[in-house]
Amino acid sequence: MSKAIRIHAHGGPEVLTFEEADPGRPGPGQALIRHTAIGLNFIDVYFRTGLYPAPNGFPLVPGGEGAGVVIEVGEGVDWLKPGDRVAYAVNIGAYAEQRVIAADRLVKVPDGITDEQAAAMMLKGMTAEYLLNRTYKVKAGDTILFHAAAGGVGLLAGQWARHIGAVTIGTAGSADKVALAKSHGYDHVINYREQDFVAEVARITNGQKCEVVYDSVGKDTFEGSLDCLKPLGLLALFGQSSGPVPPFNLGVLSQKGSLYITRPTLFVYVAKREDLVASAKALFDVVASGAVEVRINQRYALKDAAKAHADLEARRTTGTTILVP
Q1: Could you give the residue range(s) of every CATH 3.90.180.10 domain in the chain?
Q2: Mean pLDDT across 19-38
Q3: Tens of pLDDT along 88-111?
Q4: Does the keyword Oxidoreductase belong to this entry (predicted)?
Q5: How far is CA 223 from CA 229, 257, 261, in A?
Q6: Cα gap 79→88, rounded to integer Å
Q7: Residues near 252 by beta carbon (within 8 Å), at least 6 away in sequence
Q8: CATH 3.40.50.720: which residues of the chain?
């Protein structure tokens, strides 16, 4: 019998229980896969705590990205076969040894990309892809600010933005994380616990500020992020690890220079099959080229998901973490 991490009520890491869970057989348009690696992301915490509602109620199997091997395909799936290596990024359901999933959400993993790399980078890497290439198309010479630069998305985005030719500024919360971000493509990294990041951005840019700020922190950084933008600049608020942004007077955007704000999510950007395939290909290509390196900094057994969540929330992890079934 396959096992999975399941949640029966919202709460702390202790609500993550490792128990038997029959994945079932694939129906039309579906595939049954055996996971070889599973990604850990802060969105998993949001589902566990109830900040994001469980789409199908309880019990809930968290986890939004994984990689593995196809065991069986359902009717109408003619482009996958048992034994194919695949990866995906979805909302929930990854914390399991096996799962049934819609086949159109799967992409084949090319040679040269390991299962662990794929599981570690699908959600984070395609997030970096759409942020840098589509939410705001970063160009050579642009100046960007990326909060949580030592996080999973931040480390990939720093390398990718450097590859594009942008001037990259990041924020991080410790000396070790500052050093880590600097080794992953950031020209400047601000320790926000010791420095005022708004003042530092102004100093680094000689008062010119940034074309775009990428903010996954939310409440604690929101107002400062706006102050780091040049006129007509864009704030991409793609997460809220410090909590949701309070109600906001849109008139402030006019006062600060006709600014733009967007609240994007990956799942809208890859909702169409062709967009998913294109985003994954761009990610696989930039990693295969060597321009972006996927480093897995922590590994936990799937059964130890509660420990992984506790470490993630306590900011004891850096970069990318995977769960191993």
Answers
A1: 3-122+273-324
A2: 97
A3: 999 899 999 999 999 999 999 999
A4: yes
A5: 11, 14, 12
A6: 15
A7: 226
A8: 140-263
Length of the chain: 325
Instruction: Tell me how far apart the alpha carbons of residues 201 and 144 are, in angstroms, rounded to a whole number.
Output: 10
Residue that the structure tokens 């008139």 belong to: 251
For tokens 């006129």, the residue is: 231
Domain 140-263 indexed as CATH 1.10.3720.10 = no
Q: Domain 3-122+273-324: which topology?
A: Quinone Oxidoreductase; Chain A, domain 1 (3.90.180)
Contact 171, 190 (CB under 8 A): yes
